[in-house]
Amino acid sequence: MHNIASQVRTPLLSAHGVRTDHSSTINTSQKDWENPQVYQRNRLGSHVPLVSHTKQSQALSRFSGTAKLSDWTNVKVLSGSEWRFNLFEMPESVPSDFYKPSFDTSQWSKIPVPSNWECQGFGTPIYTNIIYPFPVTPPYVPKDNPTGCYTHTFDVAENWTTNRLELSVEAHSLDPQLLSRHAIVAKLYHDSPDLSNAEPVVEGSLDLVGQGLDTSDRMAGSEADWHTGAAKGSWDMMLQGEAGPALWSAEEPNLYILVLSLIAPDGSHVESESCQVGFRQDEIRGRQLLHNNQPIMIKGVNRHMHEDRRGKAVTEDSMLADITLLKQLNFNAVRNAHYPNNNRWYELCNQYGIYLMDEANVETHGFEPTFTKKNAHPACWPEWHEAIVDRGVRMIKRDKNHPSIIAWSCGNESGFGKAHSDMANFYRQLDPSRPTHYEGGGSRTDATDIICPMYARVDECVSLANIALEHRPVIQCEYAHAMGNSNGNYKEYWEMYDKHPHLQGGFIWDWVDQGLINTAKAPSGKTVEYWAYGGDFGSFPDDAQFCINGMVWPNRQPHPGCYEAKACMAPVAFAVSQATGQPGYVVTVTNKNWFTTTEALVFSFRLLADGLPIRQEAEEGWTQFDIAQIPPQEEQEVRLHPQRVPGGLQDSELALELRAQLLTATPWAPEGHVVAEAQIGLTPQHYLDQLPRQPPQQEAEYEEESEPLTVHWQDEDGRDTVTVQGDKGLKVVISGSTGCIREWNMGGQPLLTEGVTPCFFRACIDNDRGGTGGRSYASRWKAAGLDRMKVVAESCRLKSEPGEDGSVVVSASFTMRPDPNMDTIIGQTAHNLDESQRPMSSSEEQEAPGVPLQEPTDRWLGARGPGHIDVGVQYIIRGSGDITTSWQLDTSKAIPSKLPMFMYRLVPLLFRALGWVLAKLSLFPHLAGSADRGACWIYRSLPRIGLHFGVPKRCEQVQWYGAGPHECYWDRKSGAPAREYSSTVKDMHVPYIVPGENGGRADVRWGSVQDKDGRGITAVSDSQLMQMSVTQYSMSNLSLARHDYELEADSMNHVYLDHKHMGLGGDDSWSPSVHEVRTTPHHHHHHHHHHHHHGTVAVHSVNMCALTAMRQTGLHVCWWRLSCAGKTSF
């Protein structure tokens, strides 16, 4: 019987830059956890993972999917079971003899191992981004320092007692001194799914020099210590055979299994070890990162180890789910943020093909968050030097054999000091085959071989890549902050990467929403599980949802932004050449891979007319086409000969769709998985004029006879209301208090449950809150009262007159202002990254929970009170029930405060110029990037310009011709082809963990909302494209809810049809990040009415029609026309 006991303490995140004498000697009588010079006791020297096997066949099959540690005779698996556990308030409370077999732990709780104890009901989960949840008094830790103790009893084989046992390395092994009396036989096998009858590619013997392991109780690391504990040998595999080995890359993860067997002098087998081997070379040359001599593009993402029920204790199934989804979405790289991972993660990345940046567990962001004080971080303090460097040393010594690793990182956001330089130099000395990385200090220090900025805007990246004296490539270690409904502007980054040879991609922040399962009562009263974030477990301080910034939900379901990334990073690109006058058209196919041909892909195309395939009888209109294999980084042309155009489609919107699919299944995707697709609009020169036309067929016209319309005026509270009625139950009421359609009935049934009104607000997303001190869009919109806009009844004017074809024309004008009696629905207007969330000093008392954050004000921006919007509208009501509306909107006073030229134009330009100069001169690299990043500005933009109305709950079917099928917006639609789609109102909702604007569809030509019998409302655009969203939740509910479970379905469904909808942004989430061309409205309308003294005038022409079961047959066509004229700058 063996008893294993361990004591695990809270990570000792210590220190603030308040000490002045960092070179002073720390008293060795201190507690170990308060002495930075003690960072290990009784620990064996770091080495690669070892598992001793009694049979060579076991060693060879170690990495197969069916191999289990529990099947090996030399391994005792201690994880995957329950251990005894007790949580104490502090280390001093732990019984001194708890580790002894005689100590009674029968009353202790049981806990699964591995797991985070906070996820098992012990202690409180805490999330903070920068601030530490305790006073920062280095090297001392708080008295309240939760300490968990584990015990476990197990049996071992009798013959194990004669050998040395090792804990945590998952094996026991022989004393290396015995190597001098034994022989080592090495066999190299090409990895494959079935290795049962595999023959070695090469084999031979190794010449070894034995060296004993150092197990001394070291108090501090030294260079000599770092190099002890290795038995060294060499075997030049490149000399084995003429062809040489197959090289490893993420595209072709060619792996070998190396089996080393210890053979006794009598020839008997003693034991075997095995490891994965991949042949690769990574280097910086010609200002590019070269992998196997090719300048690869990093299509990367930062990944935290996270599961919603287990915390950081991730399972192999979770790792495989991440890897397969990453590959399916065209990612090829992961930054292990911000610590070394479970060894199985590296083995799987070796096998499936993922480039890794391995990162030392070093982060001290909370010591001095702005990174403007050079010596404020422990990396600059001598007493912490060895402990910090040791983090990197242990990592590289453990992970050095994994071919998936292409770079070593010295940590994250921990300033810059001698410890970083020494760690990088150790990396270079031990492993010159890989470059080093470290962003701290401005991303251009001597600790990094890669210029690796965080969240650099597009023009900043270009300026860094154009520095004349630099020799390093630019790869963003973090960019495209995926917080909630985000990832706008992603296309712009990849257009830039594809153009500039010294820009080689980056790592999105980040992969998974780090929410933990919690329970709460929903509005229905039912107890539900939900994904919780900072503060949801009662912790304080916290950084709320700043851990909810992943590309996927905690259950690994992709956010809509994933499809944007997949499209922009696709390994195949398509383009259509100009018309040649010959039948068909020429398509250029480009292979953007660096190592593989297109041999494993199959190509097909189809034609769409108004969003539907022209041929629908087989494969949804897809037709395969033959093309020769395209070598890496090359392109080929192919002429396609599509089918004839059916009659009647000459005036349709035609598009060519092309796609590349997997020819056969791979370990990460099934056969037919779409790797890349493109939709290209066609002009008559591309298509119609090149093929014989069939004569257009006459379509039957559906004419509906109706009784003349009647107009009634009625006084309501002193205001004249207009009612227009016709036969078949037609009734349209235009309110004299609002000037808007209040009722619209057809066939005796109401089509509206809430009137058609202009709408200028959206439920704020996380990116809208980016910016402090009144410098966020959310705070600007709140100050303007856009969330409380209401028609001023006294301003409303109505008149009616007969129209053409028996129609009735009603004209209205009114003014909209914020209702002073309404409460704002804009809650938090800035993220918790301001002065109120700074790290606490030892002299400060912790604030009590519930203290509200100080709201930023807009006074210093020159706000002159809430804004107003003047509206003019004309309704044309026809006997068929159709209504055409034309809107004129003067939004020049919607946001009344002017943006100060000095603060929002000149200062950003000065910052950008300073960054450019510093970069050009290679001066102060730690300041150059920060200076340029200060050039973020905000524009006078409304969230949306559009209409809102409510429809009955029975209208739950949604159809549209536009971008989709998933959620998409103006600046995030590359992966959303325009087709005809259908969904339900419920499924249109995107359940972001923190609710806000969601579910929109861009580039909508027509859309309809109807019940199961086909009755409802439709709208079609023949010129401008709409943004459409349909939701069962009110704007107020989406704005004020802090979790998705807090949403409560309204008594009606809400429809939003926008002429313009501001982009999402996503360069980061803490400053305004929507690009100017994606604001509302944008500059390309300036020339229309630049002389107009009122400022902004937007003109909308809208035709809405009622749907009946008869009209669903396609015999009736109606149009929604949206057009804009006038000066549209704010």
Low-confidence stretches: 1-28, 169-179, 209-233, 688-702, 833-863, 925-935, 1082-1100, 1108-1130
Q: How many strands, what sense, and barrel or not for the largest sheet?
A: 10 strands, antiparallel
* Average predicted confidence as pLDDT: 82
- Number of contiguous helices: 14
Strand content: 25-35%
What does this structure look like?
This protein has 1130 residues and is α+β, with helices and mostly antiparallel strands. A hairpin with an 8-residue loop joins strand 21 and strand 22 (585-591). Helix 3 (316-328) packs parallel to helix 4 (343-352).
Key descriptive features of the protein:
27% strand; disordered C terminus; disordered N terminus; ten-stranded antiparallel beta sheet; 48 strands
How would you summarize what this structure contains?
This protein is α+β, with helices and mostly antiparallel strands and 1130 residues long.
